[in-house]
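USER:
Try writing one entry.

ASSISTANT:
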Amino acid sequence: MPPLTPQAQHKPRIILYHQTHYNRAGEYISLLPLLTEPTDTISTTHLIIAAIHLNSPPGNITLNDDPPSATKHDPLWEEMHILQDCGIKVLGMLGGAAKGSFTRLDSSDDGEFERYYIPLRDMVKEYGFDGLDLDVEEEMSLGGIIRLIDRLKLDFGSSFLITLAPVARALQGKKHLSEFDYEALEVMRGGMIDWYNVQFYNGWGSLVEGDYSEILGRGWRPEKVVAGVLTHPGNGHGWVDAEEVMRTVRSLREVYPRFGGVMGWEYFNTLVRDEGRGWEWTEGMMKALEGF
């Protein structure tokens, strides 16, 4: 019998979402400190830029409130490519709390789907995202999300990252925001989905109260379940102090060597010792996860 091929070393992901691109004074919030401020090595593995919305009529796409081509986004696209050149993968987040994008992509009319999908595809190509995070916070059919995933892989290839952002309850088999069955989706298209950015906040779950282990107890593989937390108490309900998050993810990595990683919502006001120093959060998470 030939020797077994050793399993590749697993590296947990350290992810930040980035939706607030300007502060209240109208000043652009630079991403470059993620590269320049870490004391040792770049600790951020992925950045997810939010939020892309598909509006009516087809082709009316906005990044938050403005078209992606708006001049206010120019520094974002420039810095995005610098991060990519330094090894950080950058995804776009589609959907979120503002509803409508997935309803439009869920049409039973294939022609209607194409009218909304093609401009999205072209926008992803134009700005050079490494993948898409599908944050389905509205009702969508299982067939609809499968059709979208299939088209993305067909158009962008196997290296294009596809992630989803369910609330924790969705992976526990409980009622949730997307309506479709995530366990059925994983069975049918798990090979096309890189991981899940699971929201353990806003009343949908808690990372420090055993919900992560409950999810794995249902058969989910730890490398596909990234633990999502709030980075600041003003970003939602259920904020947990960064130091406690670090202790928790370290414990999870000890128990589950292929722990999927940690993600934070969101970059601009990340709070560790001081507010707005996202690199301190990612450095702390990296140190909590290293050495295994």
